[in-house]
Amino acid sequence: MRTKVIALVFMLLISLFLRTYRLNELAKFNYDEARDAIIERQILQGNLTLLGPETKVGGTTIYFGPLPFYLMAGALKISNFDPLGPYYWTAILGALSVLLVYLLSKSLIATAFIAVFPIAVIFSRWAWNPNTIPLFAAAFLFSVVKKRFFFTGLFLGLVFQLHFTSIALFFVMMAFIAKMGQIKNPKIWLNILVGFALGIAPMIAFDLRHDFLYFRNAASLLDADRSYRSLNWHYFLWALPILAYWLRTWPKRISAGIVGLSLIVTLYYLLTAQPVPQRHPQTIKQISTIIAQDQRNTSLNFNVSSFVDPDARATAYRYFLDVERVYPLGIGEYGVSDHLYVVTFERPEKVLYNQTYEISSFAPKRVSKTWHYKNINIYRLERN
C-alpha cells in the first residue's frame, strides 16, 4: 500500500511538472484567451454574466456556458491580472484529473497514462474553455461507476458548459445504466435530470430571458450545414478519462508501451517547442504600457490594431490597456478614432497604405511617432 501511495505521489508530481515545464517561456496570449480574460476581469468588477465563450460554426455564432469564466476569474485575481495565473491554474486542474482517474480506476497504469499522454498534457498548459474537460469528465465517470446519479447529471451539465461535444458522455452513461439493467428506472433518470439542470442552471436562466438562445445554438449544430466539419483534438478531451479507465484492462506490456511512447512524445514536444515572442503575454503587456503612457499625455481618443498575430483588432492589447485603465474605442470605431496605434513588423510606408479594414477605415496621413520593442514596431498614426 505504501509503495502504491509513493507511486501515485510521484505520478502527480510528474503530471504537474509536464504541465508547467517551460509554460512561461512558451505561453501565447491569443484572441480567445484575451477575450476570456477581459470578461473574467469584468466579473471580478461585479459585472456578472450568464453567457459563456463564443465560437463560430458554419458562419453561426455559438455560445458555451459561463463556467470557464468563473473557474478562471479567481486565478486571474490572485495573479494580479497576469494571464499566466489562469494558465497555471489550468495546469493544476489537469493534475487533479490525474488524481481522479486513480480514484476511479485504482490503476497506476491508467493514472500514468492520463499523467503523460500528449493531448492531456498540452491542453492543460493554457486557459481555454475546453481545456478543463478531462477533470469534469473524470468526475462524471467516477460518479457513474459509483452510481451517484445526481452527481452524474451535475457533472454532465458542467462538462456540457465547457463544450457541447462533451454531450457524447450521455451515451456512455446510457450504456452503463443499460448494463446495470436499470435503463427504465425512473428514480435514476430523475436524479440525473435534476443534477443536469443544476449543472446548466446559468444557461437555463439565460435562455428564459433571451428567447432560448442556448437551446437554439445547440439545435443548430444538428444542421449539416452548421455542424462541426473538421476534427480537432479538443473535441475528444471528454474521452481521455474513459480511455485511461479502459487501458487498465489491456495486457500490461501493451499498456506500458503506450504510456512509455506517450511520455517520449510529450517530452519531445516540451523540449523542441519554440516560443512565439510576439504573442507572449509579457511582450504584449510591455507594448500596451508604451501605448498607455503615450495616450495619457493627450486628451484625444484612440484605437489599436495588431499585425504581428492573426487578431488585427488587438484583443490581447485591449486587455492590458484595460488593466492600465486606458480605454481604446471599440472595434467598430476605427473610422472615428483620433489616433491609431499599430503593432507590426512592417516599415511605416507599408503601414500607411495597408488596405485592411482597421487601417483603411482610419485613413491615416502620417506616422507621428514610432517606438521599437525587440523586433516589433509600434506606430502612432494620425489623419493630418
From TrEMBL:
<feature type="transmembrane region" description="Helical">
    <location>
        <begin position="148"/>
        <end position="176"/>
    </location>
</feature>
<keyword id="KW-0472">Membrane</keyword>
<feature type="transmembrane region" description="Helical">
    <location>
        <begin position="86"/>
        <end position="104"/>
    </location>
</feature>
<feature type="transmembrane region" description="Helical">
    <location>
        <begin position="254"/>
        <end position="271"/>
    </location>
</feature>
<feature type="transmembrane region" description="Helical">
    <location>
        <begin position="109"/>
        <end position="128"/>
    </location>
</feature>
<keyword id="KW-0812">Transmembrane</keyword>
<keyword id="KW-1133">Transmembrane helix</keyword>
<feature type="transmembrane region" description="Helical">
    <location>
        <begin position="188"/>
        <end position="206"/>
    </location>
</feature>
<feature type="transmembrane region" description="Helical">
    <location>
        <begin position="231"/>
        <end position="247"/>
    </location>
</feature>
<protein>
    <recommendedName>
        <fullName>Glycosyltransferase RgtA/B/C/D-like domain-containing protein</fullName>
    </recommendedName>
</protein>
